[in-house]
């Protein structure tokens, strides 16, 4: 075979290979597009599942944090509530003197509890602090409060503290 024959055959072979490559490229492109779409659909499904899972985990974490927060709050809040409820009972019984004596210990109990309650109370803290200051001013002013003011101050703090620990 001559050199020209070999070149002609090589040219025909290259032309055939090029034609097959172009046809193959088109099929490869179509296949790649199909794979790309399938991958995108799968990724969307995985993304949605991941988002749903993350939402579920987030809700579980929030619930756990709330339960943990309430568990941490109870030891701080319960002594305050016990004192407030005792004072409230004395006010309701008409014994303002006994309520005044009971609530004389409020400042010390509150000073220990407030630093624990404050960070865990979140957006409820300002109302709780205002109510606690109301109790302090009602019972710590040196005078004897009237029954209405005493009862209002006590219930004004009992409500938010009870709500804070889920009672």
How would you sum up this structure, described in words?
With 167 residues, the protein is mainly alpha-helical. It has one domain. It has five helices and no strands. α1 packs across α2, α1 (3-92) runs antiparallel to α3 and α4 (125-139) runs antiparallel to α5 (147-164). The radius of gyration is 38 Å and the shape is rod-shaped. Residues 19-23 have low confidence and may be disordered.
**Which residues sit in consecutive blocks of at least 5 with pLDDT less than 50?**
19-23
- The residue-averaged pLDDT reads 78
What class do helices, strands and sheet pairing give? mainly alpha
Element-by-element helix/strand order: HHHHH
Oligomer: single chain
The largest β sheet comes out as: none
Tell me the radius of gyration: 38 Å
Q: Helix count, per DSSP? A: 5
Q: What percentage of amino acids are in beta strands?
A: under 5%
Can you give the helix content as a percent range?
over 70%
Total beta strand runs: 0
Distance between the termini: 103 Å
Characterize the overall form.
rod-shaped
């Amino acid at each position: 075979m001559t050199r020209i024959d070999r070149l002609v055959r090589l040219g025909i072979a290259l032309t055939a290979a090029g034609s097959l490559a172009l046809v193959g490229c088109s099929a490869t492109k179509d296949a790649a597009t199909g794979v790309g779409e399938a991958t995108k659909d799968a990724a969307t499904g995985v993304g949605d599942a991941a988002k749903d899972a993350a939402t579920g985990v987030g809700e579980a974490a929030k619930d756990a944090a709330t339960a943990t927060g309430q568990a941490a709050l109870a030891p701080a809040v319960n002594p305050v509530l016990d004192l407030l409820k005792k004072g409230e009972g004395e006010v309701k019984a008409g014994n303002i003197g006994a309520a005044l004596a009971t609530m004389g210990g409020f400042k010390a109990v509150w000073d220990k509890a407030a630093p624990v309650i404050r960070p865990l109370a979140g957006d409820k803290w300002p109302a709780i602090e205002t109510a606690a200051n109301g109790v302090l001013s009602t019972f710590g002013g040196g005078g004897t409060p009237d029954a209405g003011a005493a009862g209002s101050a006590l219930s004004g703090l009992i409500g938010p503290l009870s709500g804070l620990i889920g009672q």
